[in-house]
Design brief:
6-stranded antiparallel beta barrel, 4 helices, single chain, globular, mainly beta
Length: 220
């Protein structure tokens, strides 16, 4: 469990493909200022990964085939920058939102409008996720907790303050770059009950929760 508040930007020092599509990633995590134990969880660009070895500031992780397929970790190479966040501990401040570190899809930066006290960033999203995006709702982009500004058919936007850009890997991104997307955990389960969203193909068609049910019971 994470908060979506990036605590450091690390650097990939090695990216080694493994048989079956997995990948070993070695990351300079010195910016975190802590030495994690083997077995600890760290979010890398929003993907929950387990520390398999540690040597000084270099931590190694194994991204399994499913992770490589569903996220951008498979595209990481030596020298690339990544967002880092250690797992949330009981009693820690929750200033973002609850983030699982389970990526739902990969989006693409389509537009960046700079000016004033914030920047408006636009990203693509798969149509199957649209039901889980709402204005003023939460989304995690490469591990960064952000508030959705607007939702369109297959894109959405967020408003980003300069501090967030400067302290995350957003400062290295441009139009056309891929990012990891994780929808809000509450939206994920509501959408499943309504038979829409990322797992809709596996839902049973006889769910008793629909829009009429929500209206009758005062939810909408």
């Amino acid at each position: 469990m994470f908060t979506g508040l990036v605590q450091a930007v690390g650097t990939i020092v090695a990216s080694i493909p493994l048989p079956g599509g997995a990948k070993n990633l070695s990351v300079d995590i010195g910016g975190l200022g802590v030495v994690p134990e083997i077995g600890a969880s760290i979010a890398i660009n929003g993907v929950c990964q387990t520390v398999t070895s540690i040597a000084g500031d270099i931590a190694t992780f194994c991204a399994v085939e499913e992770t490589v397929r569903r996220s951008t970790l498979g595209k990481l190479s030596k020298g690339m920058k990544v967002n880092l966040e250690p797992s949330l501990r009981v009693g820690d401040s929750l200033d973002g939102h609850f983030v699982l570190g389970h990526v739902d899809a990969v989006g693409v930066v389509t537009e960046i409008n700079k000016g004033g006290s914030s920047e408006i960033w636009y990203f693509t999203m798969p149509g199957k996720l649209k039901a889980m995006f709402a204005e003023k709702g939460s989304v995690t982009i490469d591990g960064t907790s952000l508030t959705i500004a607007s939702v369109f058919d297959d894109t959405f936007s967020v408003s980003v303050i300069p501090h967030t850009v400067a302290s995350t890997r957003l400062r290295y991104l441009g139009v056309g770059d891929d990012v990891n997307l994780e929808v809000d955990v509450l939206a994920r389960y509501i959408a499943r009950q309504l038979n829409c969203g990322v797992n809709s193909a596996h839902n049973t068609p006889d769910s008793q929760i629909d829009e009429d049910f929500l209206a009758e019971n005062g939810f909408i």
